[in-house]
Amino acid sequence: MVNRAWLGATALAVAFVKAQSTCEVVESQTGISMLMPLTIDYSNEQSEYWSTSCGGLKPTCILAPSTADEVAAIVSVLRNNNETFAIKSGGHNPNNWFASVNDGPLISTKNLNEVIFDPATETVRVGPGNRWDDVAAELDGTGYTVVGGRIGNVGVGGYLLGGGLSFMSTQYGWGANSILEYTLVLANASIITVSESSHPDIYMALKGGGNNFGIVTSYLLQAYPQGDVWGGNLVYDATPENTAALLEAVRVFTENYPDDKAGIIMTAERTLATLADIWVIFLYYNGPEPPSGVFEGFTAVPHSIDTTKTQSMNSLLSANNWAVIKGSVYTIGTESMPLPTGADAPEVMQSIYDHWVNVSDTVKFVPGLVASIAFQPLPKQIARLAKEKGGDMLDLDDDINRIVIELDYSFWFDSDYAKIDTTMRDTYEGFQSLVKGYQQSGSLPSDVYLPLFQNDCFYPQDYFGRLRPEKLALAKKVQADVDPNGLWRDRTGGFKIPA
Ligand SMILES: Cc1cc2nc3c(=O)[nH]c(=O)nc-3n(C[C@H](O)[C@H](O)[C@H](O)COP(=O)(O)OP(=O)(O)OC[C@H]3O[C@@H](n4cnc5c(N)ncnc54)[C@H](O)[C@@H]3O)c2cc1C
Ligand SMILES: *[C@@H]1O[C@H](CO)[C@@H](O)[C@H](O)[C@H]1NC(C)=O
Ligand SMILES: *[C@@H]1O[C@H](CO)[C@@H](O)[C@H](O)[C@H]1NC(C)=O
Ligand SMILES: *[C@@H]1O[C@H](CO)[C@@H](O)[C@H](O)[C@H]1NC(C)=O
After folding, report:
1. CATH of 115-226, one of 3.30.465.10, 3.30.390.10, 1.10.630.10, 3.90.1170.20
2. Would 4-109 and 115-226 be classified into the same CATH topology?
3. How much distance in Å is there from the Cα of 201 to the middle of ligand 2?
4. How far is the centre of ligand 3, averaged over its atoms, from the C-alpha of 418 (Å)?
């Protein structure tokens, strides 16, 4: 049966023939840029994933639209077939099928790469095809910045849809809290501008709602004044003394948050083949020098490397790219915990670390294995700022300080994925049991809201299920409005809204 219909999404008319795939239709009917297997451009694009496992999935073709109209034209074709597809921005999400696909079209946002700064309105229009270092390079010298990634290579598109934790979150909230407007291509191929005034529910749902509501083709971001910053890394041997001192330092730092302009990621790394256990800390201060004392808890611990210096935001984000090492399969996972404050707080922190060491030890013979854990402060002021700026899906209360634990396991061969999959679950489920145990024993406050941070979630983690019921209900309502036939729900990967 040949069902021929002309679907003029906007300017482009795209023919749909039922038997034809999206790639075939786009190739024969449009001028949209398209990369085919066995070409250099296709291979290059497939290497632009953090995890080689994502790059190992082979799309039928890679479509690289350069306007919202072209995205809409592609959606017009997709809604008339039943192919699995994916949308990819920076490709940093390591969960397979989230921004990668086998046997179906991949939509790369790489040509949606505008960065337009408007000093008059103090805003920046940013396409999802950028990485944060592209944005920083463009803003370099303007005296302004946006609230974005802490490592330059991360993509704008996925980061902002997952909330976005920034070095400047204690000054301005989540990355998503500074989005003024989204240009969104809906499942019915119409293009809308989403703002607080035009579509308040969709606007809220997009702030941490992932890829469930449409394809974002541009973000309008609030810009903030920015001069030189200070930052870099400190590297330590993970001796028992250093570990105890650093765990206490990050705990005290989170509790007393000494300066809203200060940001930190505290990570431990184990390269199990060489038994190298280290701590690597990313420090940031939004000014040329931190006032003395701000990072004292960390600088006082003996370290072997110190790269901190005064520099531009652009230089800092690029320098932090050393942390993006390609060529391995990556997995990511997370858990959230209330900050321990009682007499046994050091013991609580230490047990989280010890559990990670214990579980990671069980996979030390997996080739290429590197395990890492990050302790990310989520102090009350982020919650307060997020609320002041209109809120988001995470909807944190500012009653308690929290820590977001992030975990990665990387390894060389996809054939070890199943084993590491189990290890990842064992690690974060173990954290959750430890937290519950400490809540029962009174060492941690109970009855607290502990949502998961989407950008760090492993694919089976229940991001939506851990949100407040009102926010989950909002996500369902918006989904029913904008995706009645399940285009994004059933045919793309990502964190999906439970029925
Ligand atoms: C080295 C490293 C450092 C990181 N640092 C931070 C950090 O500081 N703060 C933080 O919050 N997170 C951080 N992350 C996590 C990161 O934010 C997430 O992995 C995020 O998903 C990456 O965004 P991306 O655009 O690169 O991802 P992609 O893998 O391209 O996309 C991720 C998801 O978003 C969807 N998506 C992307 N673009 C669009 C679009 N335009 N429209 C609709 N859906 C879209 C994709 O379909 C996919 O489901 C880091 C990750 C890595 C690997
Ligand atoms: C679409 O594909 C999915 C999975 O491949 C299948 O379960 C579903 O029945 C298909 N729907 C139609 C309408 O063909
Ligand atoms: C880690 O393993 C050691 C040795 O088996 C054990 O004593 C300790 O309780 C474990 N710690 C945690 C937090 O699981
Ligand atoms: C597309 O979907 C939106 C959201 O449901 C709706 O408001 C709009 O009317 C639809 N447009 C068309 C052309 O059907």
Report:
1. 3.30.465.10
2. yes
3. 29
4. 24
Distance from first CA to last CA of the chain, Å, rounded?
Answer: 34
Distance of CA 362 from the midpoint of ligand 3 (Å):
12
Q: Which is nearest to 322 in space by CA: 246, 235, 381?
A: 235
- For the chain, the structural domain boundaries read 4-109, 115-226, 229-458
50 lines ligand 1 (CB under 6 A): yes
Judged on CB neighbours under 10 Å (0-12, 13-18, 19+), 1 is exposed
What is the C-alpha separation between 195 and 435, in angstroms, rounded? 38
The size of the chain, in residues, is 499
**How many other β-carbons are positioned within 10 Å of the β-carbon of residue 473?**
11
The per-residue b/e assignment along 331-363, b for 16 or more CB within 10 angstroms, e otherwise, is: bbbbbbbbbbbeebbeebbbbbbebbeebbeeb
Which ligand has the shortest distance to the CA of 7?
4
Q: Which two tokens mark 18? A: 């039922």
pLDDT band for 464, please (50, 70, 90 cuts): very high
This prediction has a pTM of 0.95
Q: Please, where are the H alpha helices in 200-283?
A: 200-206, 240-256
Question: Is 55 touching ligand 1 by the criterion CB < 6 Å?
Answer: no
CATH of domain 4-109: 3.30.465.10
pLDDT digits (tens, 9 = 90+) for 21-39: 999 999 898 899 999 999 9
**Contact, 254 vs 401, CB < 8 A?**
yes
CB crowding 420-445: b at 16 or more within 10 Å, else e: bbebbebbbebbeebbeebbeeebbe
The closest residue, in CA terms, to atom 12 on ligand 3 is 355
Ligand 3 contact, 351 CB (< 6 A): yes
CATH topology classification for 229-458: Vanillyl-alcohol Oxidase; Chain A, domain 3 (3.40.462)
Mean pLDDT, residues 49-53 = 97
Kindly report, residue by residue over 308-350, the tens digit of the pLDDT.
999 999 999 999 988 888 999 999 999 999 999 999 999 999 9
